[in-house]
Model the fold of this input.
Amino acid sequence: MNADTAALADALRDELRAALEIHLEAIVAAALARIEDKPDDPPTGYDDRTDEQRREDAIQWLRLTFTGRSFEALARASYTERATADYLDAENATHGHLLNPAARARGIDPNSLFTGPQTRAHKWASPELMQWWTEHGRLTFEEHCAELLGYGQTAHTLRTLRALR
Done:
């Protein structure tokens, strides 16, 4: 990886960390507000929101960094940035060995393995990239949307935020 690529990866990682910190602060503020509004009720925190509230909260947060008319467009832009950061990290960790020989022969774009279908990604990935995904995960768009909306993946998200501190 050359110095420019490493600098870009560092910049993307820093932007993602900052965005996640802002999002975490919003989650904590929303939870505290709900607790203060209902002092006699047991604290339910962030997860007592309706689906519509989750979507609206995610749209507001995403619009701090991305442009788009809908949740899906904003989520796609966010996912693309995250996949690019993962691609650059994997490229660095594998010393550029992202594709298997058949993929190289066919001229497959290694970046496409981070956003396309998982079966296609596994078909063309090098053993080094498969190992990197085992250690770091390969996030799908659907999983990314679930994280943005606060569903499932709560433990994974908290582990990620903890690792960024």
